[in-house]
Amino acid sequence: MPKNRRKQFNKSPPRTSWDPVADWYAGWVGKDGSKHHRKLAIPAVLELLNPQPGLKVLEIGAGHGVLAPYIVKRGAKYTGVDVSKKLLRLARKYHGRQGKFVWGDARRLSRSPELQPAAFDAVIFMLSLQDMEPLRPILESASWALKSGGCVVLLLTHPCFRVPRQSGWGWDEQRKLQYRRIDRYLTPLCVPMHPYPGQKKGVTLSFHRPLSVYINGLAECGLLLERMQEIPACKVHPSEGNARAKKLADREIPLFLGLRARKMALSI
Fold it and tell me: Is 263 in contact with 235 (CB distance < 8 Å)?
C-alpha cells in the first residue's frame, strides 16, 4: 500500500459494516453457519474457550449469531455485538432466545449504553477481527469489556498462509505436489474482496496483518497469549483432482488460526 494511501487510511478507516451484504451473507451461510463454521470454526472456538455454566461471554462481530446456541448449550450466557443493524435483526430473529444482541462499534464499545466495563469472563472474535480496522482500539475495547483474569479468543483465517489476493495453491507436476504459494506476508494490507456467487451488491474488506501484529497487539493491551491452535481444512474439503496430494496439503497447511489470551491483573 503506498505511503500516502496508508496515512489517509489510518486517519479515516474505511467503513467495515456488512450492512450492504447482510441479507446475502446470512442466506449464503445459513442461519446455523456454513460447513466451515460448523465443522471447523465453532469447534475450535469452543475448545479454546471451554465455556462453563454461568460464564458471561461477549462475541464482537457476532454477525447473525451462529455461535450463540453453542455457547448457551454449555450453560454460559451469551451477548453478541455488531455494527451491522441488518445482521443484528437477523441474529435476533434466528437466535434471540439463545442470547442478547446489541449494536456497538468494536472500536468504541465503551460508548455502548448496553455494555459495561469488566462485565464479561470471555470475549470472542470468530472470523471477524480480520474484517475490522484499526486493530489497537478494537483490542483495547475487548480488554475494557473483560474482567481481570478473563480470556479473549481469536479465530482467524491463518495470516501466514491465507493472504487475500496474495496467496494461492500451486501444483508441482514433477513432484506431484500441491503447495501453498505466498506472494506477500509482512506488509499489512487492506484488500477489497471479490463478490461471491450470488452477491449482487456491496464489497467487504479484509485486513491482512502478520502474526506478530496480533500477538504484540494483544500484549500491548494487557492480553497475554497462552494458547495457539492451527486448524487444517481436511475435515471440510472434498478430494478433487489429485486426491492424495490435495489431502496432504489440506492436512498440513492450516486454514484457520486460533489464539487465546488472558487479561492480566495490573500490578501496583
Answer: no
Q: What ranges in the chain are assigned the alpha helix state H?
A: 3-11, 22-29, 35-36, 42-49, 68-73, 85-95, 135-145, 211-220, 243-252
Q: C-alpha dihedral over 94, 99, 102, 104, to 10 degrees? A: -100
DSSP state of 51: -
**175 grid coordinates:** 513432484
CATH domain 21-263 topology: Rossmann fold (3.40.50)
Distance of CA 77 to the CA centre of its chain: 20
* Residue 170: CB atoms within 10 Å: 11
Find the distance separating the first CA and the last CA of the chain, reported in whole Å. 42
Q: What angle do CA 123, 134, 41 make, to 5 degrees?
A: 40
Mean pLDDT computed over 75-86: 97
pLDDT tens-place string over residues 31-53:
888 999 999 999 999 999 999 99
Q: Which residue has 483465517 as its cell numbers?
A: 157
